[in-house]
Amino acid sequence: MWDNDIRHTELAYSDGAAASFGVPLLPWSTVQTWLRACEHIHFDILVQRLATKLENFDPTRFVTMYHVDAMSGYDFESFLGELFRTAGYDVEGTKLSGDQGADLFVSRFGKKIVIQAKNYSGSVGNGAVQEAVSAKSFYGCDETMVVTNSYFTRSAIELAGAAGVRLVGRRDLQTYLDDYNQRIIEQYQVKATDMSTSDAP
Questions:
Q1: Using one digit for the tens of pLDDT, what is the confidence trace for 104-128?
Q2: CA-CA-CA-CA dihedral for 103, 108, 112, 117, to nearest 10
Q3: Are residues 21 and 98 in the same domain?
Q4: Residue-wise over 175-201: b if at least 16 C-beta within 10 A, else e?
Q5: Do 84 and 165 belong together in one domain?
Q6: Which domain holds residue 2?
Q7: Which regions of the chain does DSSP assign to beta strands (E)?
Q8: pLDDT tens by residue, 64-91
Q9: Do 69 and 53 belong to one domain?
Q10: Which residues of 69-100 are buried (b: 16+ CB within 10 A; e: fewer)?
Q11: Quick one: which of 180, 174, 177, 186 has its CA closest to 52?
Q12: d(C-alpha 164, C-alpha 99), whole Å
């Protein structure tokens, strides 16, 4: 708004902000007011999501990290496919052997990502990162990712940073699970609404 010289009476821009170092564009009190408004909006969203979960909670449809830990390697690969598919990606699996380090291919917006899946009880080391790099080159993918229910060693993190490999460890995977479960709830809500509408006289 400031760049395009869009003025509102409630926004008291400081015209000297662009030319003087340390001069804020807006008074701190205005920024604080906005922050408080954003916090209220965020809180309302969280409350609405919690209410949705409680109304439509079906424990058989939810996937927790404990479920993931109990999966076999192939089950983990299959579930990751469902996870990314639910998130809006196109998903393509690989054959079970001779996959050249690729367990899964996902694509969206014209970018193809090769995924190396590691369902481990111990830490994931350099080998997984090296396999991911090889798979990216072999299949000509745009990006590569290693996903695990565990954690990565320090050397694996350093190698991934140098090689441009995205690492999704246990904490990040939990975020993916939360989003997945939320989408399952929302899809259930839409289906329930559609059914009740179609049953109406």
A1: 899 988 899 999 999 988 899 999 9
A2: -20
A3: no
A4: ebbeebbeebbeebeeeeeeeeeeeee
A5: yes
A6: 1-57
A7: 90-93, 104-108, 111-118, 143-148, 166-168
A8: 898 899 999 889 998 999 889 888 899 9
A9: no
A10: eebeeeebbbbbbebbebeebebeebeeeebe
A11: 186
A12: 21
Q: Where are the alpha helices (DSSP H) in 62-169?
A: 65-69, 73-86, 126-139, 154-163
Residue 155 sits in the same domain as residue 109: yes
163 within some domain: yes
How many folded domains does the chain comprise?
A: 2
Q: How many helices (H) and strands (E) does the chain have?
A: 6, 5
Among the listed residues 82, 115, 108, 78, the one whose alpha carbon sits nearest the alpha carbon of residue 184: 82
Average pLDDT over residues 127-145: 93
Same domain, 53 and 139: no
One-letter identity of residue 188: Y
For residues 87 and 112, state if they share a domain.
yes
- 97 and 24, same structural domain? no
pTM of the full structure? 0.64
